[in-house]
Amino acid sequence: MKNIQWFPGHMTRAMRDMEAKRDLCDGVICVLDARAPIATVNKNLKKIFGEKPVLYVLNKADMADASKTDGFLKLFESKGKYCVKCDCTNPSSKRVLLQKLNDITEEKRSRAAAKGLTRTFRFMVAGIPNTGKSTLVNLISGQKRAKTGDKAGVTRDVRWLKCGGFDLLDTPGTMPPSFDDQHHARHLAYIGSINDDILDMDDIALELLGELAQSYPKCLTERYGIEDFSEKLGMYEAVCKRRGFIFRGGEYDYERGAKAIIDDFRKGRTGKISLETPSDYRDFDF
Q: Measured between alpha carbons, how far is 173 from 157 in angstroms, rounded to an integer?
């Protein structure tokens, strides 16, 4: 499988804009995908965050393996980080997020109140593409203020939005200029954080099947009837056969098969799956 690299030009501009507005912010909301928390940490953003307090949001927790998500939550907290798990499409997550934001700003709020001042706190919302940043903004605001979509790179501009008691800076998803770890790059491809147009979707589907065969074979059996996990191509063809993706003459329609495999995973139809395990990242520098 060829190396994955994706860094559109608008991301360079976005990172400059974020750095320019950093000092206007009281903190940062860094949105991660609970299915791949480590892959969705962009270490280049740490330079932009500086010493600002960061709330890490493990979004899409409803589609992840709950035990692993809880493990990552404890891992972040053990390193002194603010962290919360949620599903930003679920209205009940709003209370959890606002409580954490209030916890982060409590000291500044108390100091302002002691001086007889009332102020609105500002947070930058940042992260990898397609982790749900704009969905989080819409959840906190209580209305559709930010544009959302399944395709990576929907948000292109940096802009302020008033959301209840906070001002949120909605920012475009930003990648590191290059991927040193292709294992994590593949995870980003699986969850839709990389533009599908630059990917070989056959390769992505094969690699995803290979990983799931190792960690969640039961999910593949329940979804596709796969019993033999010895070969990725054999599993791929089993999916095509199960779904009827076969041309006249008996050739498999691999294109439709790849789309089904990837869409099923991204939409949670394959099962509650996490691509990473907390115990593997105890020494990770967040």
A: 10
